[in-house]
Amino acid sequence: MENIERITSNLVQKYNTNSPFELCDYLGVNVIYQELPDCVRGFFIKILKSFVVVINNTVDEDEAKVVCAHELGHIILHSETNSISLNSRTYLCTSKYEREADLFAVNLLLQGEIFPTDDNLSAEEISRITHIPLKLIMLKYFPE
Ligand SMILES: [Zn+2]
Rg for the chain (alpha carbons), in Å? Predict the structure, then answer.
């Protein structure tokens, strides 16, 4: 987990943004929107040497950001791992890789934010304020 925090903060420092879309741009990752089955929010594929993040075109802006950050997490953390590419179809999976990609996403999107220690906000409140799914907030601030 500390490692993922370090990776995300290095990225934000290097590219001066925590937008997963801008980071994809800088890193040469294409992001496209497509009609996908409802249960699939997004996934990534590797075409020749380039990565492409495919996002379900029905998700709203906030969710697209989370999906993009999650898939970018897979690309940065797991692209050397062959077993991941077909495993990354939905961020509802609970494998180790899914968890790491979720952690990457929440650390990236909330880079520099410090909620709980400040105000004792609940996970639900943080989720509502940030528009980041509760599950991801729990992972970062309230790990079991
Ligand atoms: Zn995934």
Answer: 14
Question: Domain with 39 in it: what CATH number?
Answer: 1.10.10
Distance 118 CA to ligand 1 centre (A): 30
Q: Between 21 and 85, whose confidence is greater?
A: 21
pLDDT digits (tens, 9 = 90+) for 55-69: 999 999 999 999 999
* Residue 96 CA to ligand 1 centre (angstroms): 10
- Measured in Å, residue 16 CA sits from the centre of ligand 1 at 25
Domain count, the chain: 1
Residue range of the domain that includes 130: 2-141
How buried is 117 (Cβ within 10 angstroms: 0-12 exposed, 13-18 middle, 19+ buried)? exposed
